[in-house]
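Propose amino acids for all 539 sites.
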């Protein structure tokens, strides 16, 4: 018999490594294969957001990753004559998810930390230089044929497989899954450099989008002395990775000269907007670039894959360990595909601002953008450009459903412990309650409704209170992030899924219990009785 695992993951990039680590954290056995011998060395992602950091926080990696991450600076869009035509920035503190909404990072360093963490987890088999040649579904399982560098083939079986094998995904191609083209395809050159310390002050101190028709370009301030240039390739310039230093320096002469920086990595790419038509074929699912490709203008490409991982991990755990119906996994595509499409469309819209090559059209763009706000250019908050989740396993008629629950810093008076709420609440399904007048009987009713979900009641105490009668984790928050959020929704309770997505909110206890019953029914853990036999509905 071949070795068997719960989930087989193809590809060990950030999406595959994060997914495998989340699955291992949920107690599943995982095999991860990547055909490359090591981490991809050329420039790829440089931006991420607070969702990514919150996901990695759940793996206990915040401290290890911190040296390789820095806040993302504002983005200035400069038009034909160098004037500002657009400005993006992140929202000021207090940060809703706990972390700065946008950051820059060193992807190879972060990937090494992810891989080291994954390799240390029990129940994980990790193999590089191993190519998955085939995934076949037989007798309700996946059978994988895997080849090592010596040319030897081995066989593995798994209950489910997830292809995180990149934009050229061999798995997706073997499944015959086509990509929908969102009509964006532009060639760019990406150059990373380590700049001499005494040169840093003469470079831009923030991110700059040079929306110049002669050659649209981007300058990014990375962590430490790391700086990145993204340069649109012109007709006739080669789209390949073999760019020698002597060809790069003339392109960077506007900013740096030889001796002022060390060129680190360079590669040419086609920036695409693509989304797979299907994200599941039987027991095989797609995630990350295998399912979608996003141009980099909102720094959302890698984060989209991490959202896939967070969405999929808890659902696979529910199906494999907690009796949820397999059709729960259909909500993965129902939730993620519209969100990915909308986010990618927003990134493409920014890209079109930058990529205009016609001088007359570029001047028209500049005038239009400045005139929209009476000649002034306001700051757009980056996260405002991202949609909430609008379909799937959520109560779509409930205020705030499909958004992400806030993460404040809290203190548990009973123990004196303090920290981020996610680190203290145990994960899983939660009810977050404003506890002004939550009596013991009400708390017990909510706690009982959470039993089929293996969930937990979290009770936000008013400042100065040290405890409350009845079950639940009682805490106070350092600021009023949760309280303000619930009041803005006119809600007393929020039901939150394991991936931090809000399932529902409500003002009354009966409504919360009914919502918990509906969620328990969808997840296959409700007790028999009226209202508990509803089929899973994808809104």
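Proposal:
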């Amino acid at each position: 018999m071949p070795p068997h695992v719960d989930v087989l993951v193809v590809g060990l990039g950030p999406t595959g490594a994060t997914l495998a680590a989340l699955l291992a954290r949920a107690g599943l056995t995982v095999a991860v294969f990547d055909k490359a011998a090591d981490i991809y060395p050329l420039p790829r992602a440089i931006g991420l957001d607070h969702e990514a950091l919150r996901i990695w926080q759940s793996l206990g990696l915040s401290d290890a990753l911190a040296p390789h991450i820095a806040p993302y600076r504002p983005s200035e869009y400069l038009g034909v004559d160098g004037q500002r035509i657009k400005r993006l920035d992140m929202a000021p503190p207090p940060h809703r998810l706990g972390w700065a909404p946008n950051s820059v990072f060193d992807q190879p360093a972060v990937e090494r930390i992810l891989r080291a963490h994954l390799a240390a987890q029990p129940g994980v088999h990790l193999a590089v230089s191993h190519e998955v040649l085939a995934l076949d579904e037989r007798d309700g399982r996946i059978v994988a044929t895997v080849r090592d560098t010596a040319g030897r083939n081995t066989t593995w079986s798994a209950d489910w497989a997830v292809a995180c094998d990149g934009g050229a995904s061999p798995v997706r191609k073997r499944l015959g899954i086509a990509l929908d083209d969102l009509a964006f395809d532009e060639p760019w050159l990406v150059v990373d450099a380590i700049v001499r310390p005494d040169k840093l002050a003469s470079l831009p101190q923030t991110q700059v989008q040079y929306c110049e028709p002669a050659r649209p370009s981007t300058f990014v301030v990375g962590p430490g002395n790391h700086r990145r240039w993204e340069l649109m390739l012109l007709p006739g310039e080669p789209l390949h990775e073999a760019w020698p230093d002597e060809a790069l320096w003339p392109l960077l002469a506007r900013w740096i000269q030889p001796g002022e920086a060390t060129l680190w990595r360079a590669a040419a790419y086609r920036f695409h907007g693509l989304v797979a038509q299907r994200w599941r074929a039987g027991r095989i699912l797609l995630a990350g670039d295998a399912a979608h490709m996003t141009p980099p203008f909102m720094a959302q490409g890698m984060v989209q894959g991490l959202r896939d991982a967070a969405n999929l991990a808890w659902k696979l755990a529910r199906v494999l360990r907690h009796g949820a119906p397999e059709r729960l996994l259909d909500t993965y595509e129902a939730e993620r595909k519209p969100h990915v499409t909308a986010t990618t469309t927003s990134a493409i819209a920014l890209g079109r601002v930058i990529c205009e090559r016609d001088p007359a059209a570029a001047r028209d763009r500049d005038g239009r953008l400045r005139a929209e706000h009476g000649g002034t250019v306001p700051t757009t908050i980056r996260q405002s450009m991202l949609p909430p989740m609008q379909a799937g396993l959520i109560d779509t008629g409930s205020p705030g459903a499909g958004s992400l629950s806030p993460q404040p810093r809290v203190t548990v008076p009973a123990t004196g412990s303090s920290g981020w709420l996610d680190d203290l609440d145990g994960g899983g399904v939660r009810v977050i309650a404003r506890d002004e007048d939550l009596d013991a009987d009400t708390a017990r009713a909510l706690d009982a409704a959470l039993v089929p979900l293996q969930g937990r009641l979290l009770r936000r105490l008013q400042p100065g209170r040290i405890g409350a009668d009845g079950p639940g984790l009682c805490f106070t928050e350092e600021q009023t992030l949760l309280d303000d959020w619930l009041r803005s929704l006119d809600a007393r309770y929020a039901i939150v899924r394991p991936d931090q997505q809000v399932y529902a909110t409500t003002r009354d206890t009966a409504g919360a219990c009914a919502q918990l019953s509906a969620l328990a029914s969808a997840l296959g853990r409700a007790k028999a009785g009226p209202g508990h036999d509803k089929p899973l509905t994808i809104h």
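Residues 526-539 have pLDDT under 50 and may be disordered. Residues 330-354 form the longest helix (25 residues).
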